[in-house]
């Protein structure tokens, strides 16, 4: 994963300071590309432990067209909690302590972080126990799963972009139209978080499937390692169903940034030496990409450096 570390160094050395939506501040570059040969190992970051189980459960959530955090929380996946939590604490139903700018404040104030953690625990418990509460506050709007599986058509029907893509790869592998987009201008304002990874194109050559992702906004320390693993996994899953080998994952970034409150963590990571990449193991019994469950996907030989914690910007 030298490609990823090179990106971090590039931002450190050439990035410009910019304000951002969260008020945290970033160091940013515009336009960057990484390439990963998927035949040489699964690109799961080794210079800090990355929770592969969370990558898998989030991708399966997308594949099922789900948009409610309840499914993720049931699988002990909390990577989307903050955006649903924000919806609750901004509503009239919320009666707890003031949560204004809770993400930024918690990063600077440990006492306040404890209060946020307590409220977040209450929120997750309510999501699991109360169907109406989950419906009101757990749904993130028409985010990735909705756009991939149920893009609204002008005639009132929906378009399953992912199913159509797989069918076209099987019958017309040389097409230059193997594309899925998550950026729907008509619905972007209804989403809790507009899609960061917005557009993907698949390419078949010499019996191998490659994927290029365009990501408009890239949180390089926290988000990008997950994005790399997620789209590498998606490429493997589609390749298996289409009886193809895997080729490359090409990751093209728009605004690639390091948050200012992640800089120390990046320095720690850059001092570490990358280790051998793990191997992806997919259940031989599953043929359709839509049939996979958590237990059907695993990795072997993953020996990362310890996890490095950092606050998320909401």
UniProtKB/TrEMBL annotation:
<keyword id="KW-0808">Transferase</keyword>
<dbReference type="GO" id="GO:0006231">
    <property type="term" value="P:dTMP biosynthetic process"/>
</dbReference>
<dbReference type="InterPro" id="IPR020940">
    <property type="entry name" value="Thymidylate_synthase_AS"/>
</dbReference>
<feature type="binding site">
    <location>
        <position position="313"/>
    </location>
    <ligand>
        <name>(6R)-5,10-methylene-5,6,7,8-tetrahydrofolate</name>
    </ligand>
</feature>
<feature type="binding site" description="in other chain">
    <location>
        <position position="21"/>
    </location>
    <ligand>
        <name>dUMP</name>
    </ligand>
</feature>
<keyword id="KW-0489">Methyltransferase</keyword>
<comment type="subunit">
    <text>Homodimer.</text>
</comment>
<feature type="binding site">
    <location>
        <position position="219"/>
    </location>
    <ligand>
        <name>(6R)-5,10-methylene-5,6,7,8-tetrahydrofolate</name>
    </ligand>
</feature>
<feature type="binding site" description="in other chain">
    <location>
        <begin position="216"/>
        <end position="219"/>
    </location>
    <ligand>
        <name>dUMP</name>
    </ligand>
</feature>
<dbReference type="GO" id="GO:0004799">
    <property type="term" value="F:thymidylate synthase activity"/>
</dbReference>
<comment type="similarity">
    <text>Belongs to the thymidylate synthase family. Bacterial-type ThyA subfamily.</text>
</comment>
<dbReference type="InterPro" id="IPR036926">
    <property type="entry name" value="Thymidate_synth/dCMP_Mease_sf"/>
</dbReference>
<comment type="pathway">
    <text>Pyrimidine metabolism; dTTP biosynthesis.</text>
</comment>
<comment type="function">
    <text>Catalyzes the reductive methylation of 2'-deoxyuridine-5'-monophosphate (dUMP) to 2'-deoxythymidine-5'-monophosphate (dTMP) while utilizing 5,10-methylenetetrahydrofolate (mTHF) as the methyl donor and reductant in the reaction, yielding dihydrofolate (DHF) as a by-product. This enzymatic reaction provides an intracellular de novo source of dTMP, an essential precursor for DNA biosynthesis.</text>
</comment>
<feature type="binding site">
    <location>
        <begin position="176"/>
        <end position="177"/>
    </location>
    <ligand>
        <name>dUMP</name>
    </ligand>
</feature>
<feature type="binding site" description="in other chain">
    <location>
        <position position="227"/>
    </location>
    <ligand>
        <name>dUMP</name>
    </ligand>
</feature>
<protein>
    <recommendedName>
        <fullName>Thymidylate synthase</fullName>
        <ecNumber>2.1.1.45</ecNumber>
    </recommendedName>
</protein>
<dbReference type="GO" id="GO:0006235">
    <property type="term" value="P:dTTP biosynthetic process"/>
</dbReference>
<dbReference type="Pfam" id="PF00303">
    <property type="entry name" value="Thymidylat_synt"/>
</dbReference>
<feature type="binding site" description="in other chain">
    <location>
        <begin position="257"/>
        <end position="259"/>
    </location>
    <ligand>
        <name>dUMP</name>
    </ligand>
</feature>
<feature type="domain" description="Thymidylate synthase/dCMP hydroxymethylase">
    <location>
        <begin position="2"/>
        <end position="314"/>
    </location>
</feature>
<keyword id="KW-0963">Cytoplasm</keyword>
<dbReference type="GO" id="GO:0032259">
    <property type="term" value="P:methylation"/>
</dbReference>
<feature type="active site">
    <location>
        <position position="196"/>
    </location>
</feature>
<feature type="active site" description="Nucleophile">
    <location>
        <position position="196"/>
    </location>
</feature>
<keyword id="KW-0545">Nucleotide biosynthesis</keyword>
<dbReference type="InterPro" id="IPR023451">
    <property type="entry name" value="Thymidate_synth/dCMP_Mease_dom"/>
</dbReference>
<dbReference type="InterPro" id="IPR000398">
    <property type="entry name" value="Thymidylate_synthase"/>
</dbReference>
<dbReference type="GO" id="GO:0005829">
    <property type="term" value="C:cytosol"/>
</dbReference>
<dbReference type="InterPro" id="IPR045097">
    <property type="entry name" value="Thymidate_synth/dCMP_Mease"/>
</dbReference>
